[in-house]
């Protein structure tokens, strides 16, 4: 690396030296140890190892018990192919000269005072300080540029006056921006409060809505249980009546069956005297049994349970019509229903007359 020629070409040797000490991989000043490649370019050994590992992903790392051949990668500066042996980047030679230069540079930088107020120099006239401001081009320049250079026909002003003016303008802009930021922050705070209150109100109305629907569910369940109980009661009464009739008819049937068997046995009696002793009473019993067949019966439609049917269509329509609304809308809806009921009642009375 020809440091001398590079430093002579620039008016600021320290700045140019720093540029020469920048690693092309991490773009920072070389970190020791610094290795020199066969192409004479330098890298931080860590950076060299990173690109070597990237180019040779299956290469065994240093210290492994498995011995493998080396790999290869390309110099990031000149693209020259660098062939490594089994030691990898640890087989590259350290550039002690560059490491010493880095130490000297850091010592020099630490010993030099900070030059926060160092005066910038004109790029066109390197020996001239920038001391005026071109109002036409709106750029700072030097006196030589005004007398002989590109700003010869431009309007200029003292640097200090423009500096104070633009500094004041910048301060005003900062104040305006800060005030704007304060307004924005106030709006953000208001919006955050609005978001919080919206969440709280939403939670509250959700709870109220859930409670109202739970009440409706409870009313429906209660009414359902009541109506089912009434149906069950009617069912039990009818079934009890039918069971009683079945029992009565079964008893009558059993009695008649026995009389038939007795009568058949009497018919088989060969002696007239014996037959006559029992025949009259048997005939009387059969006649009475025939009269006893007039037992209770179920009326026509006894099994019908149509009296327990419900027309819930209007209630279903009312449930489907449930929606959010104001109190005024609810009052208007109630008034309309009352008016319809009154008109219906009046129509019925006129019909009766």
UniProtKB/TrEMBL annotation:
Residues 217-266 form a coiled coil. Residues 325-353 are annotated as: Disordered. One of its GO terms (biological process) is innate immune response. It comes from the Eukaryota. Its main location: cytoplasm. It is found in: Cytoplasm, Myofibril, Sarcomere, Z line. Keywords: Coiled coil, Cytoplasm, Metal-binding, Muscle protein, Zinc, Zinc-finger. Residues 117-159 form the B box-type domain. Residues 267-325 form the COS domain. GO terms for molecular function: ubiquitin protein ligase activity; zinc ion binding. Residues 23-79 form the RING-type domain. Residues 325-344 have a biased composition (Acidic residues). Transmembrane segments: none annotated. GO terms for cellular component: cytoplasm; Z disc. PANTHER family: E3 UBIQUITIN-PROTEIN LIGASE TRIM. This is Tripartite motif containing 63. It comes from Gorilla gorilla gorilla. The lineage of its organism: Eukaryota, Metazoa, Chordata, Craniata, Vertebrata. The gene is TRIM63.
